[in-house]
Every structure is written in structure tokens, then in C-alpha cells.
Amino acid sequence: MRTPVSVLSVVSELYPLIKTGGLADVAGSLPLFLKPEGIKITSLIPGYRPVLAKLPDAETIHHFDDLFGGPARLRRAEVGGLDILFIDAPHLYDRPGTPYTNEEKEDWPDNPIRFAALSAVGAAIGLGEVAAFKPEIVHAHDWQAGLTPAYLHYRAAGRVRPPAIMTVHNLAFQGQYAPELLSTLGLPPEAMGVDGIEYYGGIGFLKAGLQFADRITTVSPKYAEEISTLQGGMGLGGLVRDRIGDVLGILNGIDENVWDPSTDNLIAAKFDRLHIKPRRINKVALQRRVGLREDADVLLFGLVSRLTWQKGIDMVLDALPLILGTGAQVAIIGQGDRAMERAVRDAVTAYPGRIGCVIGYDEELGHLMQAGADALLLPSRFEPCGLTQLYALRYGSIPVVARVGGLSDTVIDANEMARAEGIGTGVQFHPPTVEMLESAALRVASLWRKPALWRRIQRNGMRTDVSWRRSARLYAELYRELAEDGPNAVEALRA
């Protein structure tokens, strides 16, 4: 029998307690699939206001007299099979808005302090300063936890530190702050160097994680390649390339218990791969919810996304005349850049009954989109992995994706050869431009006019294994390797 390995996951959001995007879904589902592999994950998150409200009776296991400007408690709870530690620090986290922004969608000015605190507590736990729990591995996620490996390095002070993993969910968000914060963050002067946390004259949270982690993972193999390039590396490509032997791309998965059209209580009608006709009921329900003309026979494109340049929303808006010219409808759910939100609303006004939108997001509507849209648009200019296309495959909505990052890794283009072999699951296009998106939309419209072929592509997608099973085994292998080896040669060379 394999010896269990204990891992501390340091992350800024976690489903079902707090969610703004896919990071929360990943952090909340992967631990459940690692349990059968003998990996025990304990997740450390900030004690935001919604977290405090949901866990009022959580046990206190440690006190911090002064955590970046105020007292704090480390509290423990169990939710839905997840082992959770959260930092109850009202001066840092008990406030309205999102985990990252105020009610006006502006970044909290003390975000570097708030997430340095998350990292510092993660490092303290890793170094054995919390008697109730000492993990064998510390796993940090994205820039908000990026200082964790740096604190482990600089604060070890002769103690044996656990190996650290840094996972990049999106390299575009790096956490860059003024160098004057160095002492406030509790880091020594020598940290402000090219082989430390210094990044173009400032402090780089994500750069720190990439510099000091023993292993670096990304959320798809293709994205692991892309971030080691000049263009895809977004200023960090050289560092990633220098450490390429320590970089591993592991695809995200989804929790198939939550995302299952045959048992999903958030949709209008349940269905499965062999009984797909009830999707029409979901389609009409979706049309009603977003303000479209109700017609189960019209081709319905869906888009559920952050409304940002990265996600290619401007390309969708530019392609609308052609898409609507095929006779199709478009349903949009999301929020993001104010200018793009306005542009989406303007499109709804210009094409009443043909374009429908809901600015914002809720879980029920997200499920209904997957169950009701015929095709899901994902024209991202870059995409580390993406979960939307995985949900789409599971729910029989044909993904229309730019051939980048994890979209490339997870969707098989239904070209002529793939159709002949019976393996196509969606439509890919490249490069991510308006013209190529329009071409892809025309291909989708052509496929829609061939119902038998459309059903085959749907069923191919619904057969695809989009769970965490394969990826969980890869993570388990990585954790076991590090647990057996201890801190690797990277740390030994720095000593």
C-alpha cells in the first residue's frame, strides 16, 4: 500500500466557498480526485467575508499576533470532502467586493499585502510553525501565492523546508509591485536581485514563484510550450526556458459529479449521450433567460466568458454580422471590461431577439448555457487551459476554439479526416483573427445543416474523458517524486 503524501495547496479562491473563475473550480475539484491516489490535499485560502459567513464554527488552530498590520487566526474546516485552512484576518480580507477588487471593480490598493500574507502563512505552515499540520509538499497557485516559495527560501534559516510547486494558471496576471514594498513584505535586501524576486526593477510575485519553486506546472502541455517563448512568455519566457527541465504541463479536468447532464439539477431537462433530444428543452429555456426569440430549430451560438481582449470578445462582436447572416442566434453571459460590456449591450439593442446577453455570472445560468447552446465560442488569443470547452464536450455543445494553449490540447477538429475516423469533437481555427473566426462560424453552420453528422460530433465530445483521472495520476507522480527526493538540486545550488 502506498504511503500517503500530505500537500498544502495555497490558493486565492476555492469552489464551493469563493469563486471568480476557473482557478476556484480547479482548486476545489483536483483534491477530490487525488484522494484515491493516496494524496491528501489541505487547501489554504484567505478568510474573505463569504468564507467567514459559510464557516462560522470553524476551529482555530493557530494565532498570529501581527500578520501584516493586525492579529489573525488560522482556522480549519471540512467542506464537501475538502480539508480547508483559512486565514481569519479581518483587516485584510473581511470587506465587500470580490477577492481582488472593490465594489467599483478597482483593485484593492493593499493587494500586495493581502496576498503576501497568504503566501507568508503558507510558508509558515510549510516550515512547521503551525503545530497542528506540517505538509510534505507546498503547492502555490498563480501570482497571489507566488511569494510562497520565496518565503520558504528566505525564512528557512537552517530548517528543512518542504519542496515547493508553482502552478501557472494564467501568465498574463503576474502581480508586479513597487520595490519600496520589499521591507513591508518582510523580505531581505538580497531578495531584490535578478536571481531573487526582482522583476524589471519592481517586485514580481509570479516571478518569485517561478524562481524559487522546485517544480513549475502549467495547466496544459501546449501552454507549457507557449510560455517558454518570447511572445507567450510575457516577459518571463527566458526564466521559464532556463528552467524548462522543471516545467510540466498537466491538463485541467472537471468534476464530473458536478458537471453531468444526466443528473444536473441546474438545467431545465436532463439528458445523456444516448438520449440527447431533451437538449432542445434547455435551448428554449436558455433563449428565454437571455432574451432571445424562442426557437429550438435555429442554430444557437453561446459564449460564457470574461469579457476581455484575451478572450477575443472584440472578435466575436466584429464577426456578428456574418454569424447572424447564417440565420443563427448568439447568447452571451459574462462580465469584465466595462467597454466590452457596453459593446455587448449595444449589440443586443442593434439585433433584438437575435443576440441575448446577461452581464454577470451565476452557476445555474452557466450550466444552462452548456446544456442549451448548440455551439460554444472560445476565440481566445491565448488560453492556458480553459474549462468551458471541457464542460461543452460533456454537455454536447460543440466547442469552436482558437488553436492555442489548452484549447488545442482538448478539442479535436472535425475536419474531413477526423470525421472519417469518427474522432472529431469540435471546430478549431488559427490564427485567432476575425476572419478565421468567421470562417469557423461558417463551418459550424454547414455542419448544423447535416443533423446526422452534427449528432456524431456531439456524441464524440460527450464520450471524451474530461475528468481529472489521468491528470490526477500525473500530479500524484509529481508529488511522490518530490516527497521522496526532498528539495531538489535547484535549492542546493543556491545554498
UniProtKB/TrEMBL annotation:
ADP-alpha-D-glucose binds at residue 19. Residues 295-449 form the Glycosyl transferase family domain. InterPro entries: Glyco_trans_1, GS/SS, Starch_synth_cat_dom. GO terms for molecular function: alpha-1,4-glucan glucosyltransferase (ADP-glucose donor) activity; alpha-1,4-glucan glucosyltransferase (UDP-glucose donor) activity. It catalyses: [(1->4)-alpha-D-glucosyl](n) + ADP-alpha-D-glucose = [(1->4)-alpha-D-glucosyl](n+1) + ADP + H(+). GO terms for cellular component: cytosol. GO terms for biological process: glycogen biosynthetic process. Pathway: Glycan biosynthesis; glycogen biosynthesis. Residues 7-241 form the Starch synthase catalytic domain. It is an enzyme of class 2 (transferase). Its EC number is 2.4.1.21. Keywords: Glycogen biosynthesis, Glycosyltransferase, Transferase. Belongs to the glycosyltransferase 1 family. Bacterial/plant glycogen synthase subfamily. Synthesizes alpha-1,4-glucan chains using ADP-glucose. This is Glycogen synthase. The gene is glgA.
